[in-house]
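Lab meeting, item 3. Inverse folding demo.
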């Protein structure tokens, strides 16, 4: 048997990362943790999983070094281990969209059907935010907004948009963002705003990618 040298041993370790990403629930958990720190119970509630199942996924992600944790009293709180984890998820999404036809079918069938307009880039949003020519809308749940958000963004969760229409400017373009590039919240928010006569577009990605790019953020983080 050929001696397993250092390169092979490295590949074994890298394979642990790939294995930790090999379930849709684990990817969803990472997306949720990319918004900010959460307890097991909170993650289970938002992801629609049992606490036991969520805890099992978290342990596998932690063993692969993708998340870190801290204990506060009786509770354990988890977070992504670094911005490079956000970059890894972004690369995974882009590679999947380029090379897996089913991914493109879903993107075209759901996302593009709801919003065929080009999304605004981070660079353009940063420029337009500084000159005050847009209203930025964070449509994530309020607890995620509190942990961290784009400076100046208003928090109007998707299920509360109807209640806040009177407070939104009609003479200014509204840019909505949420958890990431394929987060349905922003797509649905933009569709709802356009139906009511507002000029609205999406940010091309979401809060985690904005933060990972080193752009300014506000909140508790």
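The presenter then showed the designed sequence:
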């Amino acid at each position: 048997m050929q001696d397993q040298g250092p390169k092979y041993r490295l590949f074994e370790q890298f394979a642990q990362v790939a294995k930790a990403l090999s379930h849709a629930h684990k990817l969803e958990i990472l997306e949720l943790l990319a918004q900010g720190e959460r307890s097991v119970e909170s993650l289970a509630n938002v992801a629609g999983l049992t606490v036991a199942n969520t805890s099992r996924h978290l342990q596998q992600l932690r063993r692969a070094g993708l998340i870190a944790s801290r204990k506060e009293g009786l509770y354990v709180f988890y977070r992504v281990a670094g911005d490079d984890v956000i970059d890894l998820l972004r690369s995974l999404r882009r590679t999947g969209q380029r090379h897996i036809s089913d991914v493109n079918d879903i993107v075209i069938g759901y996302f593009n059907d709801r919003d065929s307009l080009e999304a605004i880039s981070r660079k353009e949003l940063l420029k337009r935010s500084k000159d005050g020519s847009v209203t930025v809308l964070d449509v994530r749940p309020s607890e995620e907004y509190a942990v961290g958000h784009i400076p100046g963004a208003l928090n109007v969760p998707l299920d509360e948009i109807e209640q806040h229409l009177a407070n939104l400017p009609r003479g200014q373009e509204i840019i909505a963002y949420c958890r990431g590039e394929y987060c349905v919240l922003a797509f649905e928010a933009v569709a709802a705003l356009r139906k009511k006569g507002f000029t609205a577009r999406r940010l091309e990605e979401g809060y985690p990618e904005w933060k990972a790019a080193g752009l300014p953020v506000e909140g508790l983080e």
